[in-house]
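Reply to dn_fold:

You asked what the input looked like. This is it:
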Amino acid sequence: MPKISGLPAITTPDGADELPIVDDDQNTTKKITLTKLKEWLQSLAGWITTAMIGDAEVTTEKLQSTVAFHATTTQSITSETNITTYTEVTDLGGDFDHTTGEFVAPYDGMYNFSAIYGVQNSANRTHTYIRLNGATVAFSFATGAGAANADPTSCASITIELTAGDVVNMRAYNEASSRAAYESSFSGFMIGQV
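and this is what came back:
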């Protein structure tokens, strides 16, 4: 392969400036203008996009549908309870209700959820559940292992296919007496539509 030399010493190239390129088929070096290179890259990007999409139905709604939320909670509980008191940090799409703790799927698709529940200074266990339409689909627990100053924090997560209208929420349980949640949150996002 020939050595490329004599690159232009410019810091702000314009469309007429030429850059060297290597033609592997002919084992030669050629020059191309920045304008031609840009046109070629744009046509390549269009071809790749068309080839990747194939026969899939693509709509503006699908391309603009970003769904993600993250909310924190300090809700105290004494029994297995749906968490319903949140401070909303992010809610792209507006599909999470921080007053009920429910996320309603806006589209058929693959989603990912994480639920974290912890308490401070507890020797007992905390349980965290992710529920889909009232049924537990993910569960985790953590124990304070008998240490009074432990901060047991459990985290459940799941990637799951949902149908538009499905309801997902977080449920938790603290075996100790009522304690405020510590570093606790519920998050979710849509990976893609199906």
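The mean pLDDT is 78.
Hope that clears it up.
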